[in-house]
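Subject: Sanity check before I submit

Could someone independently write out the structure tokens for this chain? I want to compare against mine line by line before I put it in a report. The sequence has 152 residues.
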Amino acid sequence: MEVIQRPCNLAQAYKDNGLMFKSLSSSNSGASHIAGICWKSPKHDQVALNCDVVVIQLGNQAAYGGAIRDHHGAFICNFHAKNGSCAVIYAELWAILLGIKLAWSRGFRRIRVDSDSLNAIKLLEGSCSRFRPCYNLVRDIHQGYANSGNHY
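---
Independent answer below. Compare away.
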């Protein structure tokens, strides 16, 4: 699984036991740009999972969703869900978890996750203490990945 934060400055990608996390800027060569939004195709053997959330401040109602695309940018499938009342970080993590589960159910094992949530990415990079309320979601994302036959 590769997790990418957008938009952000270009950072050197690193690999930690099979998981890749990197940031891309809209100035990155090879990326598609539309009004400050950038999308770079995943590697040939990967699919891209693009996630996003909306949290309405009044009542903290959250909805999230995303799309899975191949390395040509062709649409494969999408998903959406309503989470009721929750904080933004929970909605971000739920979107990633639901999207990964959908990709796995369709047989995809090499998944690049695109998210605009730096906080979610930092949690997935391993900086989530087991005492944080979102620890179980982060653990489920990592365990689900490992249980799919991949190791990191």
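---
OP: Matches mine. For the report I'm noting this point. The helical segments are 88-105, 118-124, 135-147.
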